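Lecture notes, continued. The same structure-token format from the folding unit now serves as the input rather than the output. Read the line below as a description of shape only.
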């Protein structure tokens, strides 16, 4: 397989799924999916967020920022409306 074919097919011709290859090729933390109420409940989502923090060494001081970044626009808006006149970024993970 040429480099061009590899780039176009992403390695699927070898039978290797792209996400597995990407995870093996990088030590960067993987992107965390936004919260979708129809897909899972908030308790399960927050448990998975905590596992993400643990696996990626996210410091306690940065956990609120990471959560607010990954939670999604809709839920961020809800959180923002609940902490007015403050901003969510000024709150701790527990306060969010």
């Amino acid at each position: 397989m040429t480099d061009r074919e590899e780039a176009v097919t992403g390695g699927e011709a070898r039978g290797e799924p792209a996400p597995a290859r990407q995870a093996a090729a990088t030590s960067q933390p993987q992107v965390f999916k936004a919260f979708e109420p129809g897909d899972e409940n908030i308790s399960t989502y927050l448990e998975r967020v905590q596992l993400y923090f643990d696996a990626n060494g996210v410091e306690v001081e940065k956990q609120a920022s990471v959560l607010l970044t990954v939670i999604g626009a809709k839920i961020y808006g809800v959180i923002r409306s609940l902490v007015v006149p403050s901003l969510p970024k000024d709150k701790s993970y527990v306060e969010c």
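Point for the exam: Residues 42-56 form the longest helix (15 residues).
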